[in-house]
Every structure is written in structure tokens, then in C-alpha cells.
Design brief:
The protein is mainly β. It has one domain. It contains one helix and eight strands; from the N terminus they run H-E-E-E-E-E-E-E-E. The radius of gyration is 19 Å and the shape is elongated.
């Protein structure tokens, strides 16, 4: 039996991996900026269950790959500016009808840090859309969080929202 992970746990794991990667990257000499770019793929598999939203009319199995593009800039003062984006290459199939669903969805993750401090700003926005045949089965899962910490280390913004929207 295959273990199923929720979309939110997969996203949290990917973000944690991105933060760890950004921190273990070699640090440049203080007087210059450094740009590090990368591409990598991560596997994704989940089943959206009937009843999670009114527009999910059957269990839909989604699997495939997130194709990530990363850009990390380490500025002259040692601050890090991390940006990750992905596009999806997913297959979605209705488990009751066998219907094929179209999938699409961009995602962006941005983090700004100053040298020797905790993250100052973290932003993540993800859209994953499933489009089924006919009028039923059109759903968008939108995940958003935004955290801002001021120079005194006080968190001034903490926004976390996950929505399942029907079209």
C-alpha cells in the first residue's frame, strides 16, 4: 500500500528542503554578490477525495512531477534572496469513471534573509487546478502564506490560507 501525503505536507517538505539548500550553499566573499541557479524535479502523488469540495464529484488520483527552477542571490552583505518557482507535469484520473482531468498550476516561493538573522520575509503562493470533463470536477486549490519579521525580530505579519474553490 502506498503512503499518501497531503498537498500541504508535500509543500511544507519542499519549502523546508529549499531553506536547508539555501543555507548550505557556499557563502561568497563579503565584497561581492553571488547568484546560484538550479533546476530539479520532485515527484508528487495525492488523491483528492469526493466531498472535499462540492465540485469534486469523484476521487481523483493526481501524480507526476513538479519542475522547479531556483534562483538564489547572496548579496554583498551576506543576505540571501531565494526564489523558487515550479510548473507541473501531472496526470489526473477519476478513480470511479476513468475520466482524465487537465492539471495546471504555477507556484512561487520567495524568502529574504539578512546575514546572521532568521528569515525576514517568507512568501508562498500555489495554485493547483483540476479541470474535469463537462461542468463537474473543476476545482482550484489555492495555498498562500506570508510571514514578515521586522528588524527587532517581531513578527508583524502571519497569513496562512488554504482554499478549495469550485469554478
Amino acid at each position: 500500500m502506498r503512503t499518501q501525503f497531503s498537498k500541504l505536507s508535500v509543500v511544507a517538505g519542499i519549502i523546508l528542503a529549499a531553506i536547508v539548500l539555501a543555507m548550505v550553499c557556499p557563502q561568497p566573499v563579503e565584497a561581492q554578490a553571488q547568484v546560484i541557479r538550479g533546476k530539479y524535479d520532485t515527484s508528487y502523488e495525492d488523491t483528492f477525495r469526493f466531498g472535499q469540495a462540492a465540485c469534486i464529484t469523484e476521487d481523483v488520483h493526481v501524480s507526476g512531477t513538479f519542475r522547479w527552477h531556483t534562483n538564489t542571490v547572496i548579496d554583498a552583505k551576506g543576505g540571501q534572496h531565494v526564489k523558487l518557482q515550479y510548473v507541473v507535469d501531472l496526470t489526473a484520473v477519476g478513480l470511479w469513471t476513468g475520466d482524465r482531468y487537465s492539471t495546471q498550476g504555477p507556484s512561487v516561493f520567495v524568502e529574504y534573509d539578512f546575514k546572521d538573522t532568521s528569515p525576514r520575509e517568507i512568501f508562498y503562493h500555489d495554485l493547483l487546478q483540476l479541470v474535469g470533463p463537462g461542468r463537474d470536477g473543476n476545482v482550484m486549490i489555492r495555498t498562500l502564506f506570508h510571514i514578515v519579521v521586522n528588524a527587532n525580530g517581531v513578527q508583524t505579519l502571519d497569513l496562512e490560507k488554504v482554499e478549495i474553490l469550485c469554478h
